[in-house]
Amino acid sequence: LIVGSVVGSGIFFAPSIMAGYLQSPGLLLGLWITGGLLTLAGALSYAELAAAMPRAGGQYVFLSEAFSPLFGFLYGWTLLIAINTGFVAAVALAFAKALGFFVPGVGEEHAFLAVLGARFTTAQLVALAVIAVLTWINVTGLRTGASVQNLFTLAKLAALGLLVAMAVATAKGSPANFRPLASLALGPEGQRVGLFAALAWAMSKALFSYDSWYTVTFAAEEVRDPERNLPRSLVLGTVGVTVAYAATVAAYLYMVPIGEMAAVTENRIGTEAAVRAIGPAGGAFIAAAILVSTFGCVNGLTLAGA
């Protein structure tokens, strides 16, 4: 649940956005590791809370017990109306955009229906279909939803691992891209706002990619031996994602000099790195990886959020 819900589309785009603020390989890689450590700190705190109160609801339970039922009530409704539902919608749309690589008729530029001035696109249609299918799968039972989650989590981790392996095996990158490792160089966006603001902006992109690490606490009542397994899952899940992210960003840096990262078309750094490693087929590989990653992410959010 944790790995599958956290790893979505962010790791394939965010490093390029961050490079617009920071032009230091050490800082870029360091922010992803720091983001993982901050996430681990949150996970350790939630591990204590979840083990003490292994009830369905996660933050809903914690806020209700720590402050008052009013805060849990407000959080629960906000999760339903905006937080989880909005996240599901955004990731499902990312899935649709990736599908457009293989099905040219799918995209936000292709209108499916126009009514009373409102434009409905084929990307929105695909996103709604994905949400409907995964909702139906999870309604059929927890075991079915969990099986889908396990399958797509393994697939997305395999895709990231293969991306790293391709970068190393093809030897088309350069270790020189990591130098100077400890500089404080700023990108064009960073020069506009200054060092500390650039660090904050860049870190926000990394932390966004780590979001949803707490999803397993929503399903606390479904976990066997929660006092032991909830802390273990929170720690292993966040550490596993941190290692996967750090290795992937290192592969990006190896393949694409940081000075070129921010200029990558539409911030598709994953695609750029894969294309440089194995040629045009790299674009299809990353598009498929995003499809797998976002599909699993929507399933995890649907399974736990409900």
Q: Profile the largest sheet.
A: 2 strands, antiparallel
| Head-to-tail CA distance between termini | 13 Å
Radius of gyration: 20 Å
**Neighbour order of strands in the largest sheet:** 1-2
Low-confidence stretches: none
Beta-sheet strand percentage?
A: under 5%
Structural class, by secondary structure, is mainly alpha
Fraction in helix: over 70%
Per DSSP E runs of 2 or more residues, the count of β-strands stands at: 2
> How many H/I helices?
13
Q: List SSEs in N-to-C order.
A: HHHHHEEHHHHHHHH
Mean pLDDT: 89
- The shape, in one word, is globular
Question: Can you characterise this structure?
Answer:
It is built from 13 helices and 2 strands. The protein has 306 residues and is an all-alpha fold. A hairpin with a 2-residue loop joins strand 1 and strand 2. It is globular, with a radius of gyration of 20 Å.
